[in-house]
Design goal:
about 650 residues; two-stranded antiparallel sheet
Amino acid sequence: MARAEMVNKKINNASPLEMAKTLAEMELYDKKEAQEIIDEVYKKFDSGDHLSDNLLKPVLLSVADGILELKEFRPARKRGLTATRVYEECSSFTYDSKVGISEIDGYTEFKSMRDELGYDADYTTSHNKKYSDMYPGKSEYKNKDMTQTYKHNRDKFADNNKMNQYKDVIYGDKDVIQDEYFPNRDLKKEDAQTDHVIPLKVVHSQFKKNPALNNEDIKVIANQAGNFAETHGAYNQSKQDTLNEDKRTFKKGENLTEDEYQSASRASVEAQRSVNDEANKAVLKTLIGKGNVSIESERSFYNRIKNRELEKFKKRNGREPNEFELEIINNTVKQKTQKRNEKMDEVVAKKQIQKAKNAYTNIGKAAINQSKDFAIGNLILCLLKPVSFEMRDIFKNGIKAKELHASSNIDAVRKRFNRVKDYILSHLKELVQGNLTDFIKNLVSSFVEGIINCFVGIFKKALKVVKEGVKIFVKAYKILWGKEGEGLSDRKKWDAVIKMIGASVGVLAGIGIETVLQNFAVPRVLLVPLSTFLGGIITAVFMYVLDKADLFSVKSEQRRNAISKIFDERIAEINCATNAMNTTAIEVLSEQRKCYDNISAAMKSAINTKNYVELNNQLLEMAKFFNIELPYNNTVAFVAHYDSVRELALS
């Protein structure tokens, strides 16, 4: 409409001599403005604002996510409310946008389940405070088959028979061997002791919270050849429950050389791998119902049954049994023991199944509680999005925005509140259904996450990669062939899949960075915040590189669509302006023709009547009609001008 008014104004002010030039200039203006629009769109896609949105904001949000990992702010992340997720949800919200909540990223889920169970064996070392001590989890997940306190319970986990067997195998017929920690030192058999490379206490601390393991598993994991080493008794006694990498002395008053220290540290790394392998085997056996279970020994069972029969006899007869009666009791005990031994395989199988059930039950409880927390976070986010929209609109357009038609600030606040309320109530059914669906999906995902968390080391990370891969495949299928891809071009679909893979790379990067930082003995209080921050930066940079690479030319398509949209609007505007120009031009030219005819007729009449004064007046009117500027406006002024110049010129 503004363009049509401008056209009318220019045509109305144009003289007959200027009309052709004015129309030509307006056509040239349209061409020039079109090129400016194209240049502006390209400049916008390559501007600093684009860089800020794709790199600077994600980095700053990663800093905020890292801060939220501090213990004081942990409850927010526990409910899936990371800074990045909240910002993306709130900033993209409009009242016309589709109802729904984005999924919680895999790294957040990984950390939340770890906190829920209070267990992560990969975090437990002697120089780093145990994960389970800092975040103990809930007592309802306590493994009843696991002794939680190591102190005064060492005998439950040590296996002297295996330690002696290992020593016999290593020495064989020899009396002297090389120390397995320090190959430069000779080790006599009488000076040697079999050391747990990863101390029993550390192994216990690593796995005592694992819902899939029990005391028998700890005993098997710790007492294996891969975790034994023959070393000098002096070193073993001074080492106690510390790791080799934390010990620099051979014994009191004697330091290790650098080569000796490095050799002992390498032994710890190898032993930890062996411990992890054995732990993963034990977890897998438990989950498939074939785990290690504690079976009472035959002698112990016999004595327990015999004592029970003796007590029953004393209670019934009030005296000790004689030899004949004792023989009868012994025969009864033998019969019961024999029946028990015959059913031993059945008893073991039942215990193994029960052990698996207990593990799955504890993991299931943790998954349910985590899904509840995520559901609460989703509900908070649903309520927060329209409120954040109103806050953004207030900062942008003021409290009394035009579309509100408010009479006062109070009236505007009331209308904004009603708009939020109406949105929530009108979409309540969709919000509840969506939250319920998300709860079920989170429950399944958290349950799988809990199972993965039972494993340790590289195997756990490999399972995490597999899980993320399955999620990527499902999401990719929905985008490429499902409802989520409706209305998108093939290029945009594949671009969305690539960026989704990029986001998963960030998840795995965060987990990997945790492992790297742990090797540098970073304090637990900073470990996860730093991993979250650095993982976020890696994700941001990776996504920025993908955006710049534009593998599927989506940016070109977006530019083309943006230009097409602008020109569609301009075409409509130009059509309107052209119609206005045609109408106005015809009307103005018609009026100008009438005016010209009137002046011409008056000039002819003046010539015919030889009225030269009137003729001069009409000539001045004609000059004014054609917008010709003259330095005179009457006969007297003309004569004076004529006398002052040699030539007359019209401008």
